[in-house]
Design goal:
Layout: E1 5-8, E2 12-17, H1 34-38, E3 46-47, E4 56-62, H2 65-76, E5 81-89, E6 96-100, E7 103-105, E8 113-115, E9 120-124, E10 127-138, E11 141-150, H3 157-164, E12 190-198, E13 204-208, H4 213-219
Parallel strand pairs: 4-12
Antiparallel strand pairs: 1-2, 2-4, 3-4, 5-11, 5-12, 6-10, 7-8, 7-9, 10-11, 12-13
Length: 220
Amino acid sequence: MKIKILYEDANILAIDKPSGILVHPDEHGSEKTILDLFIKKYPKLEIAHRLDRETSGVMLLAKNQKAHEFLKKQFQARTVKKVYNAIVSGLVKQEHGFIDKPIGRSPRDFRRHLAGRGARGQMRAAITEYKVLNRFTSGKDKYTYLEVMPKTGRTHQIRVHMKFINHPVACDSLYNPGGTCPKGFERLALHAKSIEFENLKNKKIKIESPLPKEFKEVLK
């Protein structure tokens, strides 16, 4: 599998991750991961942050330990700016909104996280901003196309928060099993559009990933 490089310097690599590939090895270790594809060329490569298997878009990798620590501090300080595109089920009424709801674990499924009532374990602060870009109908079903800006970096945060406001991400088999998909869509409708960070020369860098063709087709 050939993966497009969006940015590269002596310390940092930004790639255009396709939907359907793991970032980290799973418990079986039987699938190729992002690391597997790049480790031969960059033997000291480390993952700077994660994207879910079905999420596409821009992703940062550190070429060495120093770069990994440098990026890690930015993520912890929440100075990295991330923007996603998402197609969610139903018509979102507010043009712009914030979801400020801590996230914990689902009591029924170890794979899932949960915001609000019923969540278990340690509750971690989570804030997600969203803006409506378009509303549309596909077949008999209605959808909203959003720009989403997570202010924190919790596992599955956008998926959990959109589920919390009753507009789950389209085609999300984990958080909305049995839910509908826009016509021609067969993957989670979530794309990491851009990321803004500082490189090791303290220069602000903004990287963008083109919108995948399946998004363009359903939005045209």
